[in-house]
Design a protein that fits this description.
The protein has ten helices and 14 strands. With 345 residues, the chain is of the alpha+beta class. The chain folds into two domains: 39 residues, no CATH class; 243 residues, Replication Protein E1, Chain: A. The chain is globular.
Length: 345
Amino acid sequence: MIKIIGIDFTKERRELRHGIIFNVTKIILCGTKYLGFKHYSCSECDHGKSVAFSCKGRFCSRCGKKQTDQWITKATNILPKTRWQHITFTMPDSLWPIFWFNRNLFGLISAIAAGIIKEIAAKKKLVVGIFTALHTFGRDLKRNVHIHLSVTCGGIDSKGNWHKLFFPAEPVKKMWRHRILELFRSEYASSNLKLPPVYQNDNDFNKWMSGLYEISWYVYFQKPSDNHKRNIEYLGRYIKRPPISEARIEEYDGKQVTFKFLDHYNNTIDRITMPVMRFIASLIMHIPDRYFRIIRYYGFLSNRTRGMQLPIVYKAINQIVPNSSFDKISPVTQNELIQNSMIYR
């Protein structure tokens, strides 16, 4: 019996989230005529060929790869070509499982991380560009909720001038810890937080929160980089692809699955073998709900202000204004993807 987040996958199939059913169904039908197809016929003979449509799903390893490449190409064209910094916001592992009982929290933590960076910039009276990606899994498919954030190492002032900006690590770490714990306290006080029985008592919950406040939270700051495309690619790989690529699956005998992953603690390749149903359950629990936005934009990249502020940013850093906006840019063809990969290889 496989249970994840209280769901028995062998008996209670009706309780599967709609997002799981929708995405898995698309993957199964990907490349079949059930999703539609185009038929090509020869005008001089009876020869013809039908080409089935793909599912275009983020969770599909084939379609997710193409969507990732398309997003990277669009972002490379649109995002300011300036110095960027990548920051990873993590939290203690005891908090990770709670998000699956309270999926609404997934939609709140990106704004918390971005809000910290925006607040630091606002003290200098600057507006920076930020985009984030929610990540819910580790390389071994276990729960590991964290935020990947990329921010410009500078911003514009009220007069449209560009100024360099530095983000201090220690204040950011403390602000992140404080605001995540405040989020949990607020949700608990409003009786909106579903918790395991061990934390449902007020004293136990407060003791747990106080203990988490006493430890240091890990927030990783990469060195700022002027390599525009590398910064985009680093975050782009977390946006559209499934938790595990097919290349990492080494063996499947009908009963068990073996896959490899990079162990960051000792920098070696490790392998895990598990029953196929457990593998599927570990995989599909990371499928987001339908219409959930994994990637989000803030500052002068926010959807409400980018049309007005991005041209000011381009002018401030002497960048040629792209022909299209992020939203209106035309889809990238397969030939263009191949050409771009050759240019930046």
